[in-house]
Write a structure and sequence with these properties.
By secondary structure, the protein is of the alpha/beta class. It is built from 14 helices and nine strands. The structure holds flavin mononucleotide.
């Protein structure tokens, strides 16, 4: 029974992974996608997205971080997967789910779900290129407009030799509209033998129980639920009451200090406000703080007012 932190571009970067994994309960993270076009990405580019590579591939709390690649060319993806493994990534994940139009226009992400043969070629090439001890995994949605190719895609990923498959139980057309189609996870589990990780709309420990029941999957990946309730993984594992705001506020302050150390001061305030805005759906105090700080644009001044 493992709990994964989902890759979330623009939301769960190395700083957020650091803060969340310190709180406990998360067994593994998948980093936000790195886009592969026509060439071998430099070490600098890979380290920018996954600075954990310089720390043995783990967050400071010791939780492994898989590196996710997004692209459509099997040869190029395989070369980059080998390079990432060489740099110490503890696993390579392949993205077959991103719905962003800019990404899909270039043939990457969810648009590949219309082409199970290409998915197979990508997984097989990456698996061949990466040393055996390093897992090559995949993450998919259920399809583009409908679920008609969901099973074919899952079979293609298995036949390509993937070590594990995470399924976000929605099509691209579903975007993020609830509810996620957990029953599809059970159908996929009947079709393929490779380990399946269930994903989509787990917001509470009760949801975690339900998705496991409906899907039959032991392992669950959580994205937005962990941003909104940072102690969710710990509570799922150990029970207990939700973390009160007075305990969470120092975590938010520590997050912002780390953001300011890593991010351009022009962008740092936006990152804090983004998190506070999301926390507001679970914590009224975060909503109040968000309202108070919304207009502040200066990174240092924001840090001062956060401590007030
Ligand atoms: C802001 C945002 C960025 C995302 N970026 C990625 C990404 O880089 N790679 C990926 O495979 N999925 C990405 N996803 C999808 C999530 O990993 C996850 O599948 C989805 O949010 C459903 O899980 P949840 O309901 O627990 O959030 C992203 C989702 C969000 C909301």
């Amino acid at each position: 029974m493992r709990l994964f932190l989902a890759p979330m571009e623009g939301l769960a970067d190395a700083v957020m992974r650091d803060v969340l994994t310190r709180l406990g309960g998360i067994d593994l993270c998948v980093a936000e996608f790195v886009r592969v076009t026509h060439h071998l990405l430099s070490e600098r580019v890979l380290l920018r997205t996954v600075p954990e590579l310089a720390n043995g591939g783990c967050t400071p709390a010791g939780v492994p971080v898989r590196l996710q690649l997004l692209g459509s060319d099997p040869v190029c993806l395989a070369e980059n997967a080998a390079q990432a493994a060489e740099l110490g990534a503890p696993g390579i994940d392949l993205n077959f789910g991103c719905p962003a139009p800019t990404v899909n226009r270039h043939g990457g992400g969810a648009v590949l779900l219309a082409e199970p043969e290409r998915i197979h070629a990508i997984v097989a090439a990456a698996r061949r290129a990466v040393p055996e001890g390093v897992p090559v995994t995949a993450k998919m949605r259920l399809g583009l407009e409908d679920t008609s190719l969901a099973l074919d895609c899952a079979r293609a990923i298995e036949a390509g030799g993937a070590d594990e498959l995470t399924v976000h139980a929605r099509t691209r057309a579903d975007r993020y509209r609830p509810p996620a189609r957990w029953e599809w996870l059970a159908r996929i589990r009947e079709e393929v033998a490779l380990p399946l990780v269930a994903n989509g709309d787990v917001w509470t420990p009760g949801d975690w129980e339900k998705i496991r029941q409906v899907s039959g999957c032991g392992d669950v990946m959580i994205g937005r639920g962990l941003i909104i309730r940072p102690d969710l993984a710990r509570r799922i594992k150990s029970g207990g009451e939700p973390m009160p705001w007075r305990e969470l506020l120092p975590v938010v302050e520590a997050y912002y200090a780390l953001v300011r150390a890593r991010v351009d001061p022009r962008h740092a305030p936006g990152r804090l406000k983004q998190w506070l805005g999301m926390l507001a759906s679970a914590y009224p105090e975060a909503e109040e703080l968000h309202r108070r700080l919304r207009a502040e644009r200066d990174a240092e001044e924001l840090a001062r007012r956060l401590r007030e």
